[in-house]
Amino acid sequence: MTDEGADTREEKSRQAGAEPETKRELHGDGDRARTDKSPRPANVSETATRAEISNYEIVTHYFEEAAERIGIPDDIAAVLKSSYREVQVQIPIRRRDGKIHVFSGYRVQHNGARGPYKGGVRFHPEVDLDEVRALASLMTWKTAIAGVPFGGAKGGVNCHAEDCDQEELEKIARSFMGKVEKLLGPQRDIPAPDVGTNAQTMAWMMDEYGKLHGHTPACVTGKPISLEGSYGREAATGRGLVYLYEEAAGELNLEPESTRVVVQGYGNVGSWAARILADMGCTLVAASDAHGAIRSDGGIDAHALAEHVAQKGRLPEFDGVEQISPDELLETPCEVFIPAALGGMIHKENAHGLACRVVIEGANSPTTPTADDILADNGIHVIPDVMANAGGVVVSYFEWVQNLQHFRWEEDEVNQRLRKIIQRAYGEVREKARERNIPLRPAAYELGIERVMEAATTRGYIHTGG
Ligand code: NAD
């Protein structure tokens, strides 16, 4: 794709009413993220530069390009591009200020040709139908690329999880599940954690579902170990990134001892990837979260930083490091850059600054199409989200299988099986990329779309020709 093409698209999206392309601020509770419709004062203001286009436009762009290259007829592409079902529900919650706050909850089921719908639930103030739609579609291609028997879905509530106490989060989780449970179930649609949600959220959702349907552990994945969660699930997405680092290291002649790592978004995915890489001998030199960014060329103790954040310490206040700006984080020299925060954080304003050899995308849609071209021009190897962060859904698949059998696997077995699936998916995508002489991202999309097409036509959901 040319820069001209990207700019034209961005221009179109601006004309269509999207946010202006120039840097915009991420306000935890600002005007754009003013999602809770109840009256209250604005009280949060964090800065991070974000993309020229939305997550939906990013995913749609990559889908359309791949569909055109494969030669999928427009009418069939329209079926594959749009969602099967989109639901929005009202979530009124009495908060600790004594008032009822009204949030919006979403569940989008994008495509179920290959199996039950599968995808996380996000609690974040920027959640809206467009974002959930984009993330649901990404799940369809991701499960197909990984070869696990699921379709794609996503959910979310536009609440600010960090602002809520445990009681409020529990009310939101239960209310959401109570309103979408008819669409869910082990053979229909299985949620999991994402940004702002975790094993505890899944425990509340499972309990709520169980009140109506009886004890059904397979109705959600990413549960606590004490409630039939799987060993290895919490670390799985980060671990999957590490397995891909091992693959890329072989191709790029990287040795762990001389590999410097930068992590943007030190949450579940980012911190697990950093900890496992550190255990292999890599050095974490910079990290960030919604509160700020830090750097230490001598190395940051990845485990101690994860513990500091888990104890509700603010990441920028970690001892013995230099505080830097979010943009400086991107420019920190390293071998491996791991985006593990939100979508659109590597964009045309900042992509030139990346000083790494490989980007392994932990976050969903972290790179805009224009930024992707810039990274390619700069010789940076990009392992795209749609295959890179599949570790979570792969071990969610294992959790679902274990729950259906009421049988638990050891953590070693989970990790070995995960490694096999990630290596196989990487091998298949790399093979396609070589055959077609295209980068990994378009190759991954082609593979995913072809597999979904095949399932959809074989089961007769869509008919090609005649
Ligand atoms: P999380 O809530 O545990 O962590 C998100 C992190 O991003 C937090 O540390 C948060 O402070 C940080 N963050 C938010 N805004 C930021 C900003 N502007 N700048 C820097 N950091 C910022 O969520 P997670 O589960 O680790 O998910 C992270 C990403 O990985 C998301 O894009 C998610 O969709 C994707 N993902 C997660 C999983 C999973 O299994 N959890 C699987 C696949 C993909």
Mean pLDDT rating: 90
Net shape = globular
Q: Which sequence of strands runs across the widest sheet?
A: 9-8-7-6-10-11-12
Q: Helix amount, in percent?
A: 40-55%
Query: Distance between termini?
Result: 33 Å
Strand coverage percent: 15-25%
Bound chemical compounds = nicotinamide-adenine-dinucleotide
The largest sheet, given as strand count, sense and whether it forms a barrel, is:
7 strands, mixed
Unreliable parts: 1-47
Describe the structure.
There is one protein chain. With 466 residues, this protein is of the alpha/beta class. 44% of the residues lie in helices and 16% in strands. It is built from 15 helices and 12 strands. The protein has helices spanning 3-15, 55-70, 74-81, 129-146, 166-180, 199-213, 233-252, 268-280, 302-310, 326-331, 369-377, 385-388, 391-405, 411-436, 440-458, and strands at 85-94, 100-111, 117-123, 152-157, 189-193, 260-264, 283-289, 292-300, 322-324, 336-339, 358-360, 381-383. The strands form 2 sheets. It has a 7-stranded mixed beta sheet with strand order 9-8-7-6-10-11-12, sandwiched between helices. Strands 1-2-4-3-5 form a 5-stranded mixed beta sheet. β3, α4 (129-146) and β4 (152-157) form a beta-alpha-beta unit. The relative contact order is 0.13. It binds nicotinamide-adenine-dinucleotide (NAD). Nicotinamide-adenine-dinucleotide is lined by residues 26, 48, 193-196, 237, 264-269, 288-290, 326, 340-342, 362-364, 389, 392.
